[in-house]
Amino acid sequence: MPQEYISIRGARVHNLKNIDVNIPKNKLVVITGLSGSGKSSLAFDTIYAEGQRRYMESLSSYARQFLELQDKPDVDEMLGLSPTIAIDQKSSSHNPRSTVGTVTEIYDFLRVLFARAGRPHCPKCGAIVQEQTLEQMSKIVEGSLGKDVLLLFAPVVQKQKGEHKHVLQAALNAGFTRVRYDGLVIDTDEAINMRKDKKKDHDLDVLIFAFQGGQSYSKDHITQMMKKALEYGNGFVTIVNDETGDERSFSQSFMCVNCGLNLPKPEPRLFSFNSPYGACTECTGLGEKLVLEPELVIPNGRLTLEEGAIRPWSKIAGNQTSYLRMLDLIGKKHKIPLDVPVEKISKAKMDVILYGTGSELYSFDGQEIVFPGVLAQLEQKYRETDSDYVRSELEGYMRRMLCPGCSGKRLQPAVLAITIAEKSIADIVNMPVEDVKSFFEGILGKGGKAVKGKKEEKQNLISGLSGDELLVTERVGKEVCARLAQLTEVGLGYLTLDRSAMTLSGGEAQRVRLASQLGSGLSGVIYILDEPSIGLHPRDNDRLIQTIRRLQEFGNSVIVVEHDEAMIQAADYVFDVGPGAGEYGGEIVAEGTAAQIKKNKHSLTGLYLSGDRVIPLPKKYRKGNGKSIDIVGATAFNLQNVNVSIPLGKLVCITGVSGSGKSTLILDILGKSLSKHFYRAKEYPGAHKSIKGIEHIDKVVAVDQSPIGRTPRSNPATYTGVFTAIRDLYTEVPEAKMRNFDAGKFSFNVKGGGRCETCAGDGVRRIEMQFLPDVYVECTECRGTRYNQEVLEVHYKQKNISDI
């Protein structure tokens, strides 16, 4: 008989106090309580960790070596556990190539769709490009015959270095006595014996046949010659008018008949910006490039060029003398003073320094050289250096901008010229999810069936697709529509599919993963969600609850760590963890339905749910200082030329539905503008006309959802800077002064200082267990204190630094 509960006995993870819990299965369960009371310790560090660990241990030892194995949680017994999936608030990816489309796999379906149903166009002239058949090519040649001689060539070498003697000899052996070598038509044996530059690119075409002017040829003969040329030219032929020199190329693959431009055959990998086949060659598929910023290269206009105004030149290792001598040479030639502050030199003269003097030659160190400019020299150094230090240093003088080659679309021009219903794959991923859904419903209809035109059965009047293309579109498009609908259901219809996953908030990233799980159709799974309603407008909250309920109705157990009242009210069962936070929490204060929790006088959550306790609105509001900061003409992303006046000296709230532009207005425009003004930040603010009132403030601090710890050694004391003051305090202790201890002696990060070198200041030692999880044991040398005995002997008020 299947167990109806997840039974937990003796859970002691973190601050949990040996608790026993029975969690109903196949229900929507909410775990609530004060921050720090132990909710996540129960849901994630106990249930999820044990579920994952048991599943991974069921795999072979070979498979386990590739997985990050979980530690066994501190719990006596757990029964009724299923495989667990956690959907937390962490950002889904730190990879700049990861987008909403790739995370949800919608982009994979779009790649297949465009490869099978897309219509290639020439990126130069816009003409539709199709594979040409032998019959089509023969007909064109037949129509081109006239009074002039028409030469039929088979291209065998295109822009390749070498002498190509073996290719020429093979042509001669095959009976072809004439070739066109680098545009010159000569005898094949002459081409074999002629002197060639092996280091240069060469073109070689073999003459298959010469159609004489004024003569008539049968269709069969023309077709036979064309077939012979195609076979020898690997599907490519060229016809040349011997009198005018006009030529035209043909291909059995995709090639524009107007421009002669060969295009790649559409296939899924061509539409991937992670593949060299389709990615923009200039930005390698990132959609943006790092470019040197003159304001960062010369940050201090009060310095002269002699004093090192060009900051990278003064910092990066290199021959400083040669740089100054070059500047001196350029300065004398163009009358640019090197001993005058940069801010007093005219823009035209500084442009000479920054951007160079074109092809003008200078005699320098016995050589004739050109001066490309400071920016071009630094960019070349960035491209060619093997030093991580130099590369990192130069990146400090750069900013990110849209790739000029692809305008941020990540793909090559030939790929962007392949369309469905006159839209490229870049056009579609740049549309909001709701609009993409409407676009495909226009092609497929809401029932998922391809829409047919009334006048012609095989022609879709809405999309312009043929009948065969519609059959492909119908199957793949149905999957795309289903996933788009899931994103809309979780309140993310405003996102675009090309939105970088790195820019998603924690709540958005969580809901993207939730939508992906809806599409998986799994059942019998335990889903654990971490505050999915965070950052969500009440308008979208009901829709989110319905989505989570759908996940549960698939036959899954859904456990939600949540504070939201609507989510608690909608739950089948609620656990209230408390009564306090940290060491004062870790107990189950109340459990039951929301109605039962309301009646429990020991539950703080119940008191607020029942209305016995409320958060009173303030009776008085701050008057502020009468000043304001004004954003004028904000047009970034979806903002419609917005003007906002924000009063200073008050607590100001910016609210609105998800995707309305709150973060764009405050973080992307105001925050980045102020950071650039006060701290010379490299990030550029979103589009706007101006910011007024900056003179009324002297500092800006942006607090977002980014994690604060950058290394495993980070802790609240090191992050806030308190630990620096503690270390300085211990250096003033008489015992520390007597031993000449400095602040570095009290750091557990400094090698050779006062840390325990046995565990490198970690306090624990890792023991690798091969195919089992690594075991961490307390360091036997320092007993987990992280410091050596010499440092631990220094006391302040009877406590050493480890006690603190």
UniProtKB/TrEMBL annotation:
<dbReference type="Pfam" id="PF17755">
    <property type="entry name" value="UvrA_DNA-bind"/>
</dbReference>
<keyword id="KW-0677">Repeat</keyword>
<dbReference type="InterPro" id="IPR041552">
    <property type="entry name" value="UvrA_DNA-bd"/>
</dbReference>
<keyword id="KW-0479">Metal-binding</keyword>
<keyword id="KW-0234">DNA repair</keyword>
<dbReference type="GO" id="GO:0009380">
    <property type="term" value="C:excinuclease repair complex"/>
</dbReference>
<dbReference type="InterPro" id="IPR004602">
    <property type="entry name" value="UvrA"/>
</dbReference>
<dbReference type="GO" id="GO:0003677">
    <property type="term" value="F:DNA binding"/>
</dbReference>
<keyword id="KW-0863">Zinc-finger</keyword>
<keyword id="KW-0963">Cytoplasm</keyword>
<comment type="similarity">
    <text>Belongs to the ABC transporter superfamily. UvrA family.</text>
</comment>
<keyword id="KW-0227">DNA damage</keyword>
<dbReference type="GO" id="GO:0016887">
    <property type="term" value="F:ATP hydrolysis activity"/>
</dbReference>
<keyword id="KW-0862">Zinc</keyword>
<dbReference type="GO" id="GO:0005524">
    <property type="term" value="F:ATP binding"/>
</dbReference>
<keyword id="KW-0547">Nucleotide-binding</keyword>
<protein>
    <recommendedName>
        <fullName>UvrABC system protein A</fullName>
    </recommendedName>
</protein>
<dbReference type="InterPro" id="IPR027417">
    <property type="entry name" value="P-loop_NTPase"/>
</dbReference>
<keyword id="KW-0228">DNA excision</keyword>
<dbReference type="InterPro" id="IPR041102">
    <property type="entry name" value="UvrA_inter"/>
</dbReference>
<keyword id="KW-0067">ATP-binding</keyword>
<feature type="domain" description="UvrA interaction">
    <location>
        <begin position="132"/>
        <end position="241"/>
    </location>
</feature>
<dbReference type="InterPro" id="IPR017871">
    <property type="entry name" value="ABC_transporter-like_CS"/>
</dbReference>
<dbReference type="GO" id="GO:0008270">
    <property type="term" value="F:zinc ion binding"/>
</dbReference>
<feature type="domain" description="UvrA DNA-binding">
    <location>
        <begin position="294"/>
        <end position="395"/>
    </location>
</feature>
<dbReference type="GO" id="GO:0005737">
    <property type="term" value="C:cytoplasm"/>
</dbReference>
<dbReference type="GO" id="GO:0006289">
    <property type="term" value="P:nucleotide-excision repair"/>
</dbReference>
<keyword id="KW-0238">DNA-binding</keyword>
<keyword id="KW-0267">Excision nuclease</keyword>
<dbReference type="Pfam" id="PF17760">
    <property type="entry name" value="UvrA_inter"/>
</dbReference>
<dbReference type="GO" id="GO:0004518">
    <property type="term" value="F:nuclease activity"/>
</dbReference>
